[in-house]
Each structure stands twice: as C-alpha cells, then as structure tokens.
Specification:
The protein is of the alpha/beta class. 46% of the residues lie in helices and 14% in strands. The protein is built from eleven helices and six strands. Helix 5 crosses helix 6.
Amino acid sequence: MKPEPVMVALPGTLCSPAVFEPLHRTLGGQVIVDPFSWLTQPGPWDIPAVAERVARHIGQRWGRPVLVCGHSTGGAIALQLAITSPAAVLGLVLVDTGAHMKGHGDVDAILDRIRDDWGQELRAAVLDRSFQVPLSPQVRAEYLTWAAALSQQAVFDVLASQRDLDLTASLAGLSLPVVVVHGRHDRARPPQQGRELAAQLPDAEFRLVDAGHTPVYETPAAVAAAVRDLLARIPDH
C-alpha cells in the first residue's frame, strides 16, 4: 500500500504556520500537510541555511521525498531546497513568491523598520497587507501573538538574505513538476512576477486566484486543486 502523500508547508516571514490550516481542512486527509515553523528554529537564518534545515526535517520526520508548498519567503526557501536537495522534493507549490525580490519595492523600507522600529505596529502592517479581506479579530490576534514571539534578528536576517538572493540562473535546471499560484490582489508582489517565475521553470503551471498575498488561507479550495493536480503529474502518485 502506498504511503499517504505528504506536503511540507513553509510560511512567509512573520506568518504563522497556522495560515495553512484552511488548506489542510480542504484537502480532507488526501494529503498530510506538515507546516514547518522555520522561523522559530535556531539560526543562522539565511535562505540556504534554512533550506538545509528543511531538508533535515524531511529526512528525519518522513524519510522520503515530499511535496513542498512555499508561501512568500517560504517559496524562496522551497526553491533553494529543490536546487540544493533535489532528492527531498517530489514537486513544488509556489505561492505568491519569486526567485528574487526585484520589483518587491518596499523590502528595504521593511528591513529598516525591522531594525529601527521593531514592534506590534510593524508586524500588524505586514500581516494586514497580506490578505485581501481583513482577518477576523480572533485570527488576527492569534497571528500577531505568534509573530510577537519571533526573534527580531531572525526576521531581519532572513529578509536580508532573500533580498540579496537571486535563484533565476538555477530555475532552468529544475525538472520537477511545479504549480505557481498567485493572488490577483497581491499588494506585495504583482501577479506578473508569478507568471515570470512559471515561465522560467521547465515543468510549471501558473494559476491566478482571487486572493491577496496569502491564497493558502484566502482561497484554499483553489490551492487544494493545484496540489491534487500536481500529484497527478508525479509518477506513482
């Protein structure tokens, strides 16, 4: 009997892993969703180091290759993982992310605020712009409480690493199946960046959904459909 498919889920910077709960419920046990809280792990927090920790997690917990869903910064980590540890990854779901941060116009301003004005106001601003429709007060409070416990240095280091990273030259060598999902109303990354990412990958599909920066929470049915279709493209699954 084949083991149940597993998808390790990597959230964006300052984003609680709980953001994947709607996707987990929508998949209804068809796929095990394993949210990995990479930002609460010990450093260093540059993208390559985080990708190494994800590879170790996959090997230690699952002992076999898995799907990887990367949202925002988690998408950059997922791409780095597929480049440096290809045996760990069956396929990728890349959500509102990119191989670089060109065109992500306010990253330097965010880094300045993390360094000089780290606090609840900043964390709330980053959270609120990540959703087209405002979160319920309870969910918003839960996500802000989670973010408040993060290391200021960890958040700064991973975003600085992502700003300085450009994985474009490695994309053509990624032959695994990929679905690129992008929210139509994303205020952080325009949809054209998702289209460009998909066009640079040899075996990628692009899907535009009616969401903001976080389709895994906002449109879980559309992302779940992408996960199922991705599985259908992988031999023996």
